[in-house]
Amino acid sequence: MDLESLGEEVKLNIRKASSIDEIESIRIKYLGKKGELTKILHSIGDIPAKERPRAGKLANKLKNEFSELIKEKKEEITKQKSLPWMDLSLPGRKPTMGGLHPLSILSQEIQDIFIQMGFSIVTGPEIETEYYNFTALNTPEDHPARDMHDTFYLKDGRLLRTHTSPVQIRTLEKHSPPLRIISPGRCYRVDTFDPIHSPTFTQIEGLWIDKDISMADLFGTLDLFAKKIFGKDVKTEFFPSYFPFTEPSAEMWIECPFCKGKGCSVCKKRGKIETVGAGMVHPNILKSLGYGEFNGFAFGMGVDRIAMTKYDIDDIRLFFQNELQFLRQFDDSKL
Ligand SMILES: [Zn+2]
Q: Which of 71, 272, 303, 305 counts the highest number of beta carbons within 10 A?
């Protein structure tokens, strides 16, 4: 091998070396007592006198270069070993951030609609007494809604609220009418999970108490709400219903936004979807609170159900499974 090729080979091997042992074996192979370059240096005297000075000069130059490169490489490897492992060329990791749950987003949207109509937001405890959850709401002790199986009872007799209506009573106890309030929050019932039931749900209830309030005010308020949530062309219908705390009571149904009333799987071929329960506040409730001269209406809706209708979700359990793929569809921040 000529000296030039040997020089290139050795330099390449030194560059590729990644450990002190490797470097040391390269040094022995070329510069050791029996090393290839050492052998060449020893045999300089055997080459023709004409070429000797050039060959001797080149061989010595290579010897110095190799020694220098080996020294540098050893220092580099030692330095790398003492540094913590770090690859500065990798892109940084974005911090993981939380987003709002779709039910929180929709609940906020609904609250904003009613705030625009002059309602205030009021919240209350999720653990309630029988008085606030039933008695004060015209649901006497023998009423079927008070069945032990309808909610979760604590050992001390308190219960997990089945609706946010107790907040209305608590508010009326502290503030005299006229008033307009919305109470959003988590409620409970003894249901096992299936596509349309869950043991917990988010409710929003409203109450408007004043003088000379009529069913027309109720219908107008809910119709405007439906148009803001489902689009300005949505059609609403009201049907008679029954709730112990309202008289008369009504249900608002909206025309199915998916089939425009023709009937589809979302609306179960009915062409319309039940959306809000409502009615004029039962006079017994207002009388018992000392507000007999007032009247008004109340309404309640399940945010989970509204979300299922608005976003065409066929299984309520999706709201509780915390699958990121599902949740990210609703998150504006696109985390
Ligand atoms: Zn439909």
A: 303
Give the confidence band of 264 by pLDDT, cuts at 50, 70, 90: confident
In a domain, 92, yes or no: no
Q: Output the pTM of the full model.
A: 0.68
Considering the domain architecture, whether residues 131 and 180 belong to the same structural domain is answered as yes
Ligand 1 mean position to 255 CA, how many Å? 8
Spacing, Cα 230 to ligand 1 middle (Å):
13
Q: What is the DSSP string of 233-275?
A: T--EEEEEEEETTEEEEEEEEEE-TTTTTS--TTTTTSSEEEE
- 38: domain range? 3-81
For residue 49, being part of any structural domain is answered with yes
Do 74 and 212 belong together in one domain?
no
Residues 51, 133 within the same domain: no
pLDDT band at 238 (very low <50, low <70, confident <90, very high): very high
CA of 4 to the centre of ligand 1 (A): 84
The one-letter amino acid code at 169 reads: I
Asked if 204 and 212 count as a contact pair (C-beta separation under 8 A), the reply is no
Is there a contact between 209 and 296 (Cβ–Cβ < 8 Å)? yes
Q: What is the Å distance from ligand 1's center to 207 Cα?
A: 30
152-195 confidence digits (pLDDT tens) = 899 998 999 999 989 988 998 899 999 999 999 999 988 888 88
- Give the residue from 52, 81, 110 where a domain finishes: 81
**Over 70: is that where the pLDDT of 82 sits?**
yes
- Number of domains comprising the chain: 2
Task: Give residue 197 CA to ligand 1 midpoint distance, Å.
Answer: 20
Specify the CATH number for the domain of residue 227: 3.30.930.10
* In-domain check, residue 113: yes
Residues by chain with Cβ below 5 Å of ion ligand 1: 256, 258-259, 264, 266-267
How many separate helices (H) and strands (E) can be counted in the chain? 11, 9
- Kindly state whether residues 211 and 150 are assigned to the same domain: yes
| Pair (30, 162) in one structural domain | no
SS3 state of residue 153: strand
Q: How far is the CA of 105 from the centre of ligand 1 (A)?
A: 24
**Which residue in this structure is represented by tokens 């061989």?**
59
Between 298 and 4, the more confident residue is 298
CA of residue 303 to ligand 1 center, whole Å: 19
Q: Does residue 322 belong to any structural domain of this protein?
A: yes
